[in-house]
Design a protein that fits this description.
This protein has helices spanning 2-10, 12-38, 41-80, 84-107, 109-116, 121-143, 147-167, 172-184, 195-198, 205-239, 242-259, 263-278, 282-309, 311-319, 326-352, 356-381, 385-415. It is mainly alpha-helical and 417 residues long. Helix 2 (12-38) packs antiparallel against helix 11 (242-259), helix 3 runs parallel beside helix 12 and helix 16 packs antiparallel against helix 17 (385-415). The longest helix is centred in the first third of the chain and has 40 residues, at 41-80. The protein is globular, with a radius of gyration of 21 Å. The chain starts with a helix and ends with a helix.
């Protein structure tokens, strides 16, 4: 009993952070259930297409450079006590990125409206700028090890969003508008910033180039990851129907919520692991990769198996009997999610050791492979084809990371202990 208490005590901050992330996941799940039940399958397909473009503009508008604050900012914080250079370097990058993204979005607004089927481009653009501010706050709190405050951003926005969905009658446009309103509320968290962490404007050319290089590779990788669901949706829409898009995305959104939960590991531990490598703390590196990693992965695998076992009950009870065809799709995707949880540890290793080019090349390859397999497998297996493609592409790229990373992790952890 004492050992259990000590085990929990050592990890109490991570457990609290994890529980907040569970709450965020549950709020997202409940929100998605309410949306699915309030909309027709066809309208949910339209909403999925609109949300796909929200993901597109956030990916190319700002999220590709956001992790620079987490990885470089945390190392700068360990060495100098602030994240000043990282913060201002990213400001320059994101300003140029947003100008370009906004210009392209305005030029192609009619094409986007036509593809989605409703006029929502103006709302999507507003969503982009709100998301930029929210992301800035979240990444800042992670970099300075205020993980609990970072997670509270999402809790606040999701609670308000869910409450408004219950109160108001919804359609696709209303849902996007409610997203914008709810996420705008997180701007109040700006009062939690320590001005000493940021300081006055400082431009270091060589450091800026380093951040830009890191961020551009993140752009390539993020683009690849985004194209996985984009490719699935586009291929299904081309070969099948909008209704099929809705059925597939009901399973995919549930899978994606669980799979993306793996980033709880990276967001919580990335700052610490970056500092371990920056300060050559080999014992801490060994503890993380050869103890903490196996505990976390074992628990996550156990939870995946439980979800798969009850998948039919979960989907039919949450979404309704009309989504029973989503069950098999979901189970196949969940196998891929299990492998994602192991792969996140390699992502931490790549990014903390300036191996991000390898990481992002893997992501690009994975997305291209996924789209190719989508096109081939949908013709043989129908709607489950894209799910099989997603899982296969995850496994193949994970195998490469295992061969590349494990020997380097072992060498680092044990050579100087």
């Amino acid at each position: 009993m004492v050992r259990i208490i000590d085990f929990l005590n050592e990890r109490k901050n991570f457990i609290l952070y994890f529980l907040l992330k569970v709450l965020i996941m549950l709020l997202g799940l409940i929100t998605n259930i309410v949306i699915v039940r309030k909309l027709s399958i066809n309208d949910f397909g339209l909403f999925s297409l609109a949300f796909m473009f929200i993901g597109l503009i956030t990916t190319f508008g700002f999220s590709w450079s956001s992790s620079s604050i987490l990885y470089y900012g945390s190392q700068e914080k360990a060495k100098t006590g602030s994240i000043n250079k990282t913060f201002w370097a990213r400001n320059v990058i994101i300003s140029a990125s947003l100008i370009l993204t906004t210009t392209l979005f305005v030029i192609f607004r009619n094409s986007i409206n036509e593809y989605i089927g409703i006029e929502v481009t103006f709302l999507l653009l507003i969503w982009l700028y709100i998301s930029v501010a929210e992301d800035y706050l979240s990444q800042y709190f992670l970099a300075v090890k205020k993980q609990l405050l970072s997670s509270m951003l999402s809790v606040t926005a999701k609670l308000i969003y869910l409450a408004m969905i219950f109160i108001f009658e919804i359609d696709v446009k209303t849902l996007i508008l409610l997203n914008i309103i709810s996420h705008s509320t997180v701007l109040f968290y700006i009062f939690g910033i320590n001005k000493n962490d940021i300081g006055k404007f400082e431009f270091d050319k060589s450091f800026f180039i380093e951040i830009l290089n890191f961020s551009l590779w993140q752009l390539f990788g993020f683009s690849g990851l985004y194209l996985i669901n984009f490719g699935d949706t586009a291929v299904i829409k081309y070969f099948m129907t909008t209704k099929d898009v809705g059925i597939y995305n009901a399973a995919y959104k549930l899978f994606n919520t669980i799979a993306n939960f793996s980033f709880v590991i990276s967001s919580y531990y990335a700052g610490s692991v970056s500092q371990y490598f920056a300060k050559n703390q080999y014992k801490e590196i060994k503890h993380f990769f050869y103890k903490e990693r196996f505990i976390i992965f074992g628990l996550s695998t156990f939870m995946h198996l439980i979800v798969i076992f009850f998948s039919k009950l979960i989907i039919t009870k949450l979404y309704g009997e009309q989504y029973e065809n989503s069950v098999q799709i979901f189970n196949i995707l969940m196998l891929g999610s299990m492998f994602r949880y192991w792969g996140v540890f390699y992502m931490i290793y790549y990014n903390t050791n300036q191996k991000y080019k390898i990481q992002q090349t893997i992501n690009i390859f994975r997305s291209v492979l996924n789209v190719i397999l989508d096109i081939v497998l949908i013709q043989y297996f129908g709607l489950i084809g894209p799910a099989v493609a997603t899982t296969i592409s995850i496994v193949i790229t994970l195998i490469f990371s295992i061969f590349y990373c494990e020997k380097n992790i072992f060498k680092t952890a044990y050579s100087k202990v």
